[in-house]
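Worked example

This section walks through a single chain of length 234. The input is the sequence exactly as stored; nothing has been trimmed or padded.
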Amino acid sequence: MDSLKLDVVIPAAGVGSRMGAKVPKQYLMLGTKTILERTLEIFLNSPLINRVIVVISKDDEIFQTLEIDSPKLLIAYGGKDRADSVRSGLNQVTTDWVLVHDAARPLLTLEDLAILVVRGRESDCGAILAAPVADTLKKSDGNGKIARTVVRKNVYRALTPQFFKTDLLVKALDEAAKEHAEITDEASALEFLGYHPLLIEGRSDNIKITNKADLRMAKALVKLRERSNKFKAV
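Given that input, the structure is written out below as tokens.
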């Protein structure tokens, strides 16, 4: 195995309740393919990737119906939350560094992936893709009124993939679980141990699909990219 290649863990065991759909959001159609198929194809087609470990629910009856056939693809089974699912996927990782990516984030570019991997290796622990916050941020008082304006300088939206040393991520998730720490992404687990991963600025259109408005935006972006690729091929 090429020592520079990486395993990637993609947690896809959630139900996506905010979408209000009849199937988990990763199985909604985005053009001619499901969201999950588009996400998996990014990594299955990348020369940087050794194996893609998709973590699904034990009750999942849809995944096996997808038309994905690759020797790179492995399946793991998820736990009660994201951290548990990622931890399950890490049990099958064989590379020293690992990527973790959201199943419902199908618009990652190969360029951003490559930049993350190159720059992330310069860190003592790893890095994440992130986008600077463009909007003015307001803190609520909990009763529907503005408590204050949050200074947005140096504030970023955390994106994925997130890229870390495998043994360090395993340790961070295990320690956070022991202490019942709130872990919202993999970087927050490393932060819990006192590490400070790099922020690598990524494309803001690397959106996570969580609701119907996101899905409409993703469909428009897919059409735009497909149209652009047709022009490039001429």
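What to look for: The chain has a mean pLDDT of 93.
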